[in-house]
Specification:
Strand content: under 5%
Number of domains: 1
Number of helices: 9
Number of strands: 2
Order of helices and strands: HHHHHHEEHHH
């Protein structure tokens, strides 16, 4: 196991872990967005509350939540370690730098973007996940059965301008983070080819914009077009 430890504690090993966990988290975003689209059903929140109940009580989903949390922790930890290693390797900046000539804005600011996303994630979990898992939500009866009314919590939260602003700004940060991270993950894993890499880059850009736009539309819709 010594070779395994050395490999994945090295810079390239940590980049591989960053790539794998990043792609896993990207897949979670797709599932999460599909579930959140239930909010648009004109049924008083019944479909979304049933979906939330299923996610909260299904054993497989609960197990995957643990995997997801570990994925986040590994991703964040490796990002911090790699950033510190990069700074230690070049403690003194070059006299003249023109980073914009050979790198994108998102690639130069992944740390800032990641920090914005992390702060949003903490607020988001505290506002929705914690009461949904540990109590604090009002109840609602659907087809004779009682459920937590997470839909009401979502709608009420998206009536608050500053929360909507934080949400939308965070989705913009996430889009930039994904635009760089998507193609970077494939490159780190060696999945590059002169024929396919341009497609991967274009697909990653489109995917990042569409997913984050999908998330951002939800709070904007409830803030501007929905009344309790």
């Amino acid at each position: 196991m010594n070779w395994f430890t050395k490999t994945f504690s090295s810079t390239i090993g940590r980049k591989i872990i960053m790539s794998i966990t990043g792609l896993f988290l990207i897949s979670f975003l797709v599932v999460h967005l599909v579930g959140n689209l239930q909010l648009f059903n004109d049924d008083g929140g019944a479909a979304f509350n049933l979906y939330s109940h299923f996610m909260a009580n299904n054993f497989v989903i609960r197990f995957m939540e643990i995997v997801l949390v570990l994925g986040f922790l590994f991703h964040i930890y490796d990002a911090i370690v790699l950033t510190r290693k990069n700074k230690a390797a070049r403690p003194i900046d070059y006299a003249e730098q023109h980073p914009q000539e050979n790198s994108t804005w998102s690639s130069r600011n992944m740390g800032l973007l990641g920090t914005v996303i992390l702060v949003f994630l903490i607020i988001h979990l505290w506002n929705f996940f914690v009461p949904a898992r540990f109590g604090g939500l009002e109840g609602i009866v659907i087809e004779g059965a009682s459920y937590d009314n997470l839909y009401l919590r979502v709608v009420q939260s998206f009536q608050i301008w500053w929360y909507v602003a934080i949400y939308v700004i965070s989705m913009i940060a996430l889009a930039y983070h994904l635009i760089h991270g998507f193609q970077s993950a494939f490159q780190t894993l060696g999945l590059t080819h002169k024929k396919y890499t341009p497609f991967i880059q274009k697909f990653g850009y489109a995917f990042s914009v569409i997913i984050c736009l999908g998330f951002a539309i939800i709070p904007l819709y409830f803030f501007f077009f929905f009344e309790l």
